[in-house]
């Protein structure tokens, strides 16, 4: 810190000349380098362009509209002409017990999804990696990817049917063991397990692709030398595969934490009932009922903004922790 | 006064010059006048057959010829079926077409009308729309029902005709088989439901009958009326209602509801109500009737009476017919559901419109005899003919595989412009069973007054928006818990009422009543 200050004190004119000389020369070459770089790699930038445009149009431009969270918004008057009302919407939200309950449910459901849902695709990927029979491996993979491509509406239909008290397979099986049939989807205590289980079933297979790709990138020489050293498959998995894909796992974990409040609410809307609101109502479904259906866009905007701020804090925290302890981070 | 010029117009007169007479004359304008229109409703997102705006409705062709006003489509949000979204999209652009129409426009029009987006129609109608004015005079109270908080009304509504909506239906063949008669009161109804449950009326040897079922889970509440409680004051579920004293109250905060709910929970626990009513969804009527399982329901006259024909082959003797609502515990016979006489659908004039007088005259055209026939039955000579002074659909229309209403939607009739519906349109294609049922329901005075809604001013709206969604959420949560037996309504009642109070129930009722008094008194 003290170095540059002392130098600056010695002779400013001399310094400026020196600096000019020093800066100008690399600047020209930097520009040249940039032009050369663009000329060489322009195809890559063109490929990047759609994503950048998408980001600008669908994520950055709407940020202008976030101000309705602090306004008494009227669709007809428009965003700019609606009057400011400060934090009133936030006061309304936090004064509402149902919002607080929804917030609690969101965190709870997210934690459950994280604890049970996050390791699943990793396990699947490791297991797929150990399958030797190619035909079996491909078939198994296809089967676990499949639910990802089915619409949520259909998944919800399958779930409702499977848990139906009269004809559902779950109650039929329970019946064989002498249990009374249970109307699962109206029981608040069953909602979270059913929801988390469903999302694992739906997404775990597809999410495992990332880890399979990471595993494919591990250098075969590591395994070859391990075989020479007489390591078992179990040891190779623990000592080579998992450490090698650890950066991927951590990146995925950070992203996941950032999306924590984004519980897939369309699935919840399809599965919940007033009878299960107690455990099923999350921030997004609350926004949907209160804001979109009731036409209170400004209030919904405030809740959405709050969601985003929490997500931002979560990502920052997770990233910082990861950077400090594992030297892996998003940025 | 207005008959003569109209007759002249029909004779093909071209004398359209004197503006003093123009009020009663067709065409409305000498030279064709183009007006843009937003028309977004479930069957068509756009002003054209099925939403195809490159084609003209046959009805529009005739209307152009008769009035010289040409409606040009300018519908926003044509790629969404959500009318709310389309309306918001339209408003957000700020560039409103001359006419804004479609379903559920009342709320936005009453909210943004006073802000200047739509024109108040009171004076316009009084001065230039004799037919609409006459309709208001013949149907007192309706104009008030669609008014915004400033006392003006901003749209010309679609006005349904006909009284009955839902009715009680029972498997008469099951009753006959078990040697029972149609239940006339609540106790007999209970016995019939028990018999349906226990005595195997479908004869398959299994106890799989579902005595009372419903397509919409909210209908599970309707039996509350048998214990003299209310479930809703309008054809919207969970709505406020007007008490005998002329005040607005909510059915779910009344003692009668508590007592009725206790009985309903008992019925549910005893298996008299479909155990899966909350998740079975809209196909439950098809399934439970088709599988010969369902015994009794509360559903629409027209669609429910169609099952006798549809299932005649599959289930021999199948006979699902409407019967009078059983008398309540206090001896009252009531059908809570009815068609409301006025819809939140229709059309409005936007602030961009430069031809306001012509537009209101055009709106008025659809309330004239000629316009009303055109908007109800389509083009004369094509889909209907006048027989002995009655408009009768052609055989081609009545015998088609496509339901008459769907045919009309493509003709440009029965679409959600502001017009008075004519029940003769529906009666012609109503199934025989439903006609008998409607005649049966007409033998007694079953219907109750409807709550047609209120228009809040800004402060009242703020109170309602702040408290009501949460209160309703809480009400429905407790309601399902009580039906399902996870809570005991009698034991929970005091806590429930306290919670409602804490959540602002009294404030909401207060603004409801202040708005109601302003609007209807």
Give a written overview of the molecule.
The complex is a heterodimer of chains A (331) and B (521). Chain A has helices at residues 2-10, 12-60, 78-81, 88-94, 97-117, 119-130, 134-145, 152-162, 169-176, 188-216, 220-228, 233-258, 265-271, 277-280, 283-293, 297-326. Mean pLDDT of chain A is 85; it is low at 1-19. The two termini of chain A are 25 Å apart. In chain A, 75% of the residues lie in helices and 0% in strands. Chain A is mainly α and 331 residues long. Chain B is of the alpha+beta class and 521 residues long. Among the domains of chain B are: 3-161 and 342-379, Periplasmic binding protein-like II (D-Maltodextrin-Binding Protein, domain 2, 3-Layer(aba) Sandwich), CATH 3.40.190; 458-520. Helix content of chain B is 41%, strand content 11%. Chain B contains 23 helices and 14 strands. In chain B, a hairpin with a 2-residue loop joins strand 1 and strand 2 (44-45). In chain B, helix 11 runs parallel beside helix 21 and helix 21 (458-484) packs across helix 23 (505-520). Chain B is globular, with a radius of gyration of 25 Å. Chain B starts with a helix and ends with a helix. Mean pLDDT of chain B is 90; it is low at 1-23. Chain A binds chain B through residues 74-78, 92, 96-98, 160, 164-166, 183, 185-187, 273-275, 277-278, 281, 289-290, 294-296, 299, and chain B through 84, 88, 91-92, 94, 107-108, 111-112, 115-117, 208, 275-276, 278-279, 281, 465-466, 469-470, 473-474, 476-477, 479-481, 484, 486.
């Amino acid at each position: 810190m003290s170095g540059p200050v002392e130098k600056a004190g010695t002779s400013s004119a001399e310094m400026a000349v020196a600096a000019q000389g020093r800066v100008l020369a690399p600047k020209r070459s930097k520009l040249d380098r940039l032009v050369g770089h663009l000329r060489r790699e322009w195809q890559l930038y063109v490929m990047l362009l759609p994503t950048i445009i998408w980001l600008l149009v669908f994520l950055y431009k709407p940020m202008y509209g976030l101000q309705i969270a602090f306004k008494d918004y009227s669709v007809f008057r428009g965003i700019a002409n609606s009057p400011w009302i400060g934090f009133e919407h936030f006061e309304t939200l936090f004064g509402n017990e149902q919002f607080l309950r929804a917030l609690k449910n969101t965190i709870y459901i997210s934690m459950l999804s994280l604890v049970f849902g996050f390791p699943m695709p990793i396990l699947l990927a490791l297991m797929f990696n150990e399958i030797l029979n190619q035909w079996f491996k491909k078939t198994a993979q296809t089967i676990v990817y499949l639910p990802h491509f089915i619409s949520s509406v259909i998944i919800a239909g399958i779930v409702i049917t499977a848990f139906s008290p009269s004809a559902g397979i779950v109650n039929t099986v329970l019946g064989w063991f002498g249990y009374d049939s249970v109307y699962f989807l109206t029981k608040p205590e069953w909602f979270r397990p059913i929801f988390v289980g469903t999302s694992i079933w739906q997404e775990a297979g597809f999410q495992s692709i990332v880890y399979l790709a990471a595993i494919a990138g591990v250098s075969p020489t590591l395994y070859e030398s391990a075989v020479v050293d007489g390591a078992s498959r179990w040891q190779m998995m623990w000592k080579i595969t998992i450490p090698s894909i650890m950066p991927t796992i951590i990146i995925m974990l950070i992203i996941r934490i950032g999306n924590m409040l984004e519980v897939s609410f369309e699935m919840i809307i399809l599965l919940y009932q007033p009878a299960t609101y107690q455990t099923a109502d999350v921030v997004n479904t609350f926004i949907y009922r209160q804001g979109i259906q009731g036409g209170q866009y400004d209030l919904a905007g405030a809740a959405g903004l709050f969601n985003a701020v929490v997500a931002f804090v979560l990502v920052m925290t997770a990233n910082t922790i990861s950077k400090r302890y594992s030297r892996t981070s998003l940025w | 006064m207005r008959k003569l010029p109209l007759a002249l117009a029909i004779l093909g007169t071209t004398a359209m010059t004197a503006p003093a007479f123009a009020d009663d004359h067709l065409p409305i304008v000498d030279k064709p006048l183009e007006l843009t229109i937003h028309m977004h409703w479930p069957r068509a997102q756009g002003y054209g057959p099925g939403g195809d705006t490159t084609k003209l409705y046959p009805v529009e062709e005739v209307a152009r010829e008769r009035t010289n006003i040409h409606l040009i489509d300018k519908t926003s949000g044509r790629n969404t079926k959500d009318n709310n979204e389309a309306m918001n999209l339209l408003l957000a652009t700020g560039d409103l077409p001359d006419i804004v129409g479609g379903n559920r426009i009342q709320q936005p029009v009453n909210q943004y009308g006073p802000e200047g987006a739509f024109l108040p129609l009171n004076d316009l109608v009084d001065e230039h729309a004799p037919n609409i004015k006459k309709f208001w005079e013949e149907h007192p109270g309706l104009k008030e029902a669609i008014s915004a908080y400033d006392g003006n009304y901003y749209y010309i509504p679609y006005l349904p005709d006909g009284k009955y909506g839902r009715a009680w239906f029972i498997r008469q063949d099951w009753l006959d088989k078990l040697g029972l008669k149609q239940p006339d009161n609540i106790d007999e109804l209970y016995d019939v439901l028990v018999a349906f449950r226990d005595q195997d009326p479908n004869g398959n040897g299994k106890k799989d009958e579902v005595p009372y079922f419903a397509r919409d889970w909210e209908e599970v509440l309707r039996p509350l009326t048998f214990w003299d409680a209310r479930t809703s004051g309008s054809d919207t579920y969970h709505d406020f209602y007007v008490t005998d004293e002329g005040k607005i109250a909510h059915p779910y905060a009344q003692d009668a509801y508590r007592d009725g709910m206790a009985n309903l929970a008992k019925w549910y626990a005893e298996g008299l109500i479909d155990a899966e009513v909350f998740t079975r969804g809209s196909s439950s009527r098809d399934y439970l009737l088709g599988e010969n399982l369902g015994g009794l329901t509360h559903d629409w006259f027209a669609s429910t009476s169609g099952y006798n024909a549809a299932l005649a082959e599959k289930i021999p003797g199948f006979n699902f017919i409407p019967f009078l609502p059983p008398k309540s515990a206090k001896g009252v016979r009531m059908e809570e559901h009815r068609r409301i006489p006025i819809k939140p659908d229709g059309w409005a004039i936007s602030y961009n419109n430069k031809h306001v007088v012509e537009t209101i005259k055009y709106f008025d055209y659809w309330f004239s005899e000629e316009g009303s026939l055109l908007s109800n039955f389509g083009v004369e000579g094509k889909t209907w003919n006048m027989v002995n002074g009655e408009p009768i659909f052609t055989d081609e229309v009545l015998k088609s595989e496509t339901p008459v209403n769907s045919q009309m939607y493509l003709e440009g009739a029965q679409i959600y412009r502001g017009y008075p519906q004519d029940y003769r349109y529906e009666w012609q294609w109503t199934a025989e069973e439903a006609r008998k049922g409607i005649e049966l329901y007409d033998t007694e005075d079953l219907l109750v007054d409807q709550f047609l809604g209120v228009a809040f001013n800004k402060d009242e709206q703020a109170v309602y928006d702040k408290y009501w969604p949460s209160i309703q959420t809480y009400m429905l949560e407790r309601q399902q818990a009580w039906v399902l037996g996870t809570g005991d309504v009698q034991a929970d009642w005091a806590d429930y009422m306290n919670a409602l109070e804490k959540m602002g129930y009294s404030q909401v009722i207060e603004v409801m009543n202040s708005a109601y008094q302003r609007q209807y008194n």
